[in-house]
Design the sequence.
C-alpha cells in the first residue's frame, strides 16, 4: 500500500472515530439518550427569581449532558438581576447544579445603580430596592473613598441621633451630604473629615439654640462654618 493510501486510510479511520464524538458534544445526537432531567439550585436565595432562572437554564440543558455549554449557561445566569456570582456544573448522569451568590445592597449609587456590601456596582433595573438605603454618588473609581467617608461620618453624627441620608463626591473632588433631618452640608474638597468632625461635635449645641431645623451648613471655611436657618413666617405669610 502506498504512503498516500495509508494516509487516506488513517484519515478516514480518525474521521469515523471523531465524527460521533463531535456530533455528541455539539448536541447533534445524544440529547435524548443522555438528557439532563434534574436542576438543582441552592435554596438560600432571597431576591433572585427562581422561575426566571429555570427559564434561562432550560435551553442550555436541552442540549443533553455532553453538549451542554456550562460557560454559556453560567454567563446567562450571571446576567440576571441580583446575581453577583454564578456557578453552573453538571453531575452524572442527568443533573445540572446552579449555585448563585446574591448581591447584598449597601447603598444606592447614582441614578440607576446599587452598591453591594462587597463594593461592587450593579444595575438597579428589575430590582425592588430595599427601603432605607443611603444615596451615594461619585466617580466609579472613587467608590472606596465614598464608602469610607460615609462610614466615618455616620459614626460622627450617630451620637446626635442623625444619620447620613446621602453623600456626594463631584468631579472636582468636592463633598456634600444631606443628613436624615434634611440638613444639607457643604463640605468642600479640603480636610473633609476634620471639618465634619468639628461640625458633628458642635451640632447639638447649635440646634439647641433654635426652634426650627437647620437648613444648610457650609463648612467650606478655614476657621468655622456658615449656617442657614428657615426664614421666620411674618403675619402676612401665615396661612
Sequence:
Amino acid at each position: 500500500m502506498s504512503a498516500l493510501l495509508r494516509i487516506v486510510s488513517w484519515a478516514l479511520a480518525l474521521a469515523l472515530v471523531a465524527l460521533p464524538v463531535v456530533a455528541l458534544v455539539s448536541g447533534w445526537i445524544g440529547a435524548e439518550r443522555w438528557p439532563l432531567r434534574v436542576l438543582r439550585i441552592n435554596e438560600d436565595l432571597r431576591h433572585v427569581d427562581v422561575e426566571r432562572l429555570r427559564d434561562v437554564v432550560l435551553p442550555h440543558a436541552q442540549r443533553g449532558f455532553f453538549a451542554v455549554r456550562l460557560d454559556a449557561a453560567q454567563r446567562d445566569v450571571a446576567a440576571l438581576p441580583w446575581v453577583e456570582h454564578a456557578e453552573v456544573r453538571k453531575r452524572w448522569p442527568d443533573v445540572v447544579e446552579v449555585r448563585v451568590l446574591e448581591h447584598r445592597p449597601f447603598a444606592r449609587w447614582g441614578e440607576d445603580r446599587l452598591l453591594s456590601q462587597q463594593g461592587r456596582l450593579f444595575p438597579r433595573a428589575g430590582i425592588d430596592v430595599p427601603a432605607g438605603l443611603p444615596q451615594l454618588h461619585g466617580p466609579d473609581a472613587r467608590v472606596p473613598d465614598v464608602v469610607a467617608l460615609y462610614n466615618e461620618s455616620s459614626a460622627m453624627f450617630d451620637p446626635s441621633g442623625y444619620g447620613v441620608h446621602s453623600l456626594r463626591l463631584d468631579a472636582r473632588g468636592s463633598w456634600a451630604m444631606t443628613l436624615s433631618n434634611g440638613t444639607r452640608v457643604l463640605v468642600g474638597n479640603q480636610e473633609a473629615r476634620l471639618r465634619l468632625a468639628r461640625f458633628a461635635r458642635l451640632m447639638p449645641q447649635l440646634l439647641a439654640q433654635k426652634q426650627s431645623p437647620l437648613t444648610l451648613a457650609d463648612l467650606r471655611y478655614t476657621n468655622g462654618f456658615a449656617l442657614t436657618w428657615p426664614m421666620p413666617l411674618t403675619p402676612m405669610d401665615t396661612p
Notes: The radius of gyration is 30 Å. The chain has a mean pLDDT of 85.
